[in-house]
Write a structure and sequence with these properties.
Low-confidence stretches of chain B: none
CATH architecture of the largest domain in chain B: 3-Layer(aba) Sandwich
CATH topology of one domain in chain A: Alpha-Beta Plaits
Strand order of the largest sheet of chain B: 3-2-4-5-7-6-12
Chains: A alpha+beta (97), B alpha/beta (388), C alpha/beta (182)
Order of helices and strands of chain B: EHEHEHEHHEEHEEHHEEHEEHEHEHE
Number of strands of chain A: 4
Largest sheet of chain B: 7 strands, mixed
Number of helices of chain B: 12
Largest interface: B-C, 28 and 25 residues
Oligomer: heterotrimer
CATH topology of the largest domain in chain B: Rossmann fold
Mean pLDDT of chain A: 92
Strand content of chain B: 15-25%
Radius of gyration of chain A: 18 Å
Helix content of chain B: 25-40%
CATH superfamily of the largest domain in chain B: Thiamin diphosphate (ThDP)-binding fold, Pyr/PP domains
Strand content of chain A: 15-25%
Structural class of chain A: alpha+beta
Distance between the termini of chain B: 52 Å
CATH class of the largest domain in chain B: Alpha Beta
Number of strands of chain B: 15
CATH architecture of one domain in chain A: 2-Layer Sandwich
Radius of gyration of chain B: 21 Å
Order of helices and strands of chain A: EHEEHE
Shape of chain B: globular
Helix content of chain A: 10-25%
Chain lengths: 97, 388, 182
């Protein structure tokens, strides 16, 4: 946690505010924004991958059996996967439950 | 030392860009810049430079495409005028904030309304705060020279900023006149190959055009401002290099017959040479008058101005644009502000001249000087020659 | 310094004339300006174009109000516009016409030197089209001597390519046939 989130002074700003650390955005865990999380019912899942395609965060992965799950470090709980899933295999449940 | 040719200045500006071997031209045509766009397209089509000409559907896209191309490390040229420049305005500060050394040739033209396609500076003036370096040319030779210089200044690692070269629409763009066109070998010697600070490439990952939150935005703007302010050193250095190699001298403010002058005119752009004739004629009548011509508008040459006005009692600033409801023309208000803390400063008067293609004659400049010499104008600024 | 105003109609090549004359003068190591009347281009509408030629660098960039020479490419313009406006009393008015001085004087208020040339006739004969710009350029060079007619060779070649020769012979015919009638 010692690394600075942003340059302290103007002299430290890279020209053009360019960022040279690839994938630095992955350090920002947007999962904390979530109020609801998606739960897959693999009995209903037909492995079509629509959830994977529509996830705006790109945080849904395919497991070794071909089913899908969300990386909860980044899932914001937007519910688009559940909305798009036409076999209704995904439900959004409250974080507290 | 180059070849003396007769050439239309708009075409010559495109030829100058070709001598710089641009990689990408992204241009949308608009009067009076159209010959620049057409000729850049011809040059690429004929294979005279190894470049892409991106046809776009608007000026907003022209500069956006230019930014994308410059992001990959390409040497990029674009050109526009008037409404086109205003349509680009959203993208102008992005190009400078991203520190991409794009060169833009501007054929200065009035902005609507009423609709007017003729020359003045009301297109570039509202863009003066967008973080670009701005050159103003007096004649076709300066257009050619400044276009080449612009690439060298902008691409310098100490600068990394876009540069616009301003030439008066019609008065310059549509003028066939003698120009010394540098040879390719001379330009190659002057302008090194472009090595970008960073370029978008899968092997060398970089993010450009990032978000700047309140915690960083002010520091980002300060860093851009310092880069622009400090670029004057590089501009002067490049102009010295140019003078050494090509023998033509450039200065941020060029003085003409001001040594013992009590009064001085101040101009920007193609009316400067007409004003020189007025100075010569008034000198013959015994009036101690000189002329200052601003060639570098951004970064503003504060120190050079302070030196240039030494001994001058009345400074007659001419503007080619109005700041509606403001303190006077934009050049006037900046000059007055720049001189505010000087212990000895001239009285500064303001004429707004040549709006929307209105001609200004030698006699006109002489009249301005004679009236300014008598003291105050009846108004804070005067639109010269306005009827009513 | 010699200042010239050209009168033509949009599409008749007045702008080409001023460009060719500038290039010829610059080829002779002189200084020159060639420029159109600034603004939109409209085919058929009366247009003007301008030249300045000098041995010294030309600094002035304002309009030309008192030309030394006026060239009229299309005689029908004489009845429409005041072609002699501002023309110096010591200047020359050069008109493409077969009319007599008396006929011209009905429309032209100019008491100085007037020269005429049947440029349309020459253009029909030499070029096969009634485009008179290069023809009248030949006539202009005869009455003013502003540049040598040979200096037109390269600019005309560059501009017209395979029809350059025809344009040059049209210019030369006009050079021989132009007459000062007053």
């Amino acid at each position: 946690m010692t690394e600075k989130k942003w340059p302290e002074t103007w002299q430290e700003v890279n020209p053009g505010c360019m960022v040279f650390r690839p994938g630095s955005a992955s350090e920002y865990h947007t999962g904390s924004w979530r109020a609801k999380r998606p739960i897959w019912d693999n009995a209903k899942c037909i492995k079509c991958g629509v959830c994977y395609i529509y996830c705006p965060e790109g945080c849904i992965n395919e497991d070794k059996d071909g089913f899908f799950q969300a990386n909860l470090d980044y899932c914001k709980g937007c519910g688009i996967c559940a909305h798009e899933c036409w076999p209704k295999a995904i439900v959004m449940v409250n974080e507290e439950d | 030392m180059g070849k003396r040719v007769g050439m239309e200045v708009a075409i010559a500006s495109a030829e100058a860009a070709a001598l710089c071997k641009f990689d990408v031209a992204a241009v949308y045509p608009i009067t009076p810049q159209s010959h620049v766009a057409e000729h850049l397209s011809d040059i690429v089509h004929e294979g005279r430079v190894d470049a892409s000409f991106i046809t776009v559907e608007s000026e907003h896209s022209a500069l956006s495409a230019a930014i994308g191309a410059a992001g990959t490390g390409a040497r990029v040229v674009t050109a526009t005028s008037s409404q086109g420049l205003l349509y680009m305005s959203e993208v102008l500060p992005i190009a400078s904030a991203m520190r991409l050394p794009i060169v833009m040739i501007i054929a200065n033209r009035a902005v609507s309304g009423p609709i007017n396609i003729w020359n003045d500076h009301s297109d570039i003036m509202p863009m003066r705060d967008t973080g670009w370096i701005s050159f103003f040319a007096d004649n076709g030779q300066e257009v050619v020279d400044m276009t080449i210089q612009a690439f060298k200044v902008g691409e310098d690692r100490r600068v990394m900023l876009p540069v616009n070269v301003n030439m008066d629409g019609f008065q310059l763009t549509h003028m066939v006149e003698p120009i010394i066109m540098p040879e390719q070998e001379e330009v190659d010697r002057f302008l090194p190959a472009y090595v970008p600070y960073a370029a978008l490439h899968p092997d060398n990952i970089v993010s450009m055009g990032t978000l700047g939150m309140p915690e960083i935005y002010a520091e980002a703007q300060k860093s851009k401002d310092v880069a622009l302010v400090n670029s004057i050193k590089v501009v002067k250095e490049v102009w010295k290099d140019w003078e050494k190699q090509f023998g033509r001298k450039y200065e941020p403010i060029q003085s003409y017959r001001t040594e013992d002058a009590d009064i001085a005119l101040l101009t920007m752009g193609s009316m400067g040479e007409t004003a020189e004739i007025a100075v010569d004629e008034l000198r013959e009548q015994g009036v101690k008058v000189g002329l200052l011509k601003i060639k570098l508008w951004r970064p503003f040459p504060f120190d050079e101005l302070k030196k240039a006005i030494k001994g001058i009692k009345v400074l007659v600033v001419t503007d080619r644009a109005i700041s509606f409801g403001g303190p006077g023309g934009p050049v006037f208000s900046e000059i007055r502000s720049a001189l505010y803390d000087q212990p000895k400063r001239p009285k500064v008067v303001n004429y707004i001249i040549g709006l929307g293609g209105r001609d200004v004659t030698v006699e006109g400049f002489m009249d301005m000087v004679r009236r300014a010499a008598k003291g105050k104008l009846s108004e804070r600024y005067e639109i010269y020659g306005v009827r009513g | 310094m010699l200042e010239i105003r050209w009168h033509g109609r949009g599409g008749q090549g007045a702008v080409t004339s001023v460009e060719l004359l500038s290039l010829a003068a610059i080829e002779e190591e002189k200084y020159a300006q060639g420029f159109p009347s600034f603004g939109p281009e409209r085919r058929g509408a009366p247009v003007t174009a301008f030249n300045r030629v000098d041995d010294k660098q030309i600094k002035i960039r304002s309009g030309i109000y008192h030309p030394d020479v006026v060239v009229v490419l299309d005689e029908s313009l004489v009845a429409l516009v005041d072609v002699a406006e501002g023309l110096k009393p010591t200047g020359i008015l050069l008109v493409n016409t077969t009319k007599t001085l008396a006929e011209l004087k009905k429309n032209i208020k100019f008491s100085g030197k007037i020269a005429t040339c049947d440029a349309t006739g020459i253009a029909w004969k030499e070029l096969g089209v009634p485009i008179t710009n290069t023809t009248m350029l030949g006539a202009l060079l005869k009455v003013t001597g502003v540049v040598k007619i040979d200096s037109l060779d390269n600019p005309v070649k560059e501009r017209f390519g395979r029809i350059a020769q025809k344009n040059m012979s049209a210019a030369k015919s006009a050079f021989d046939q132009v007459r000062i009638i007053s």
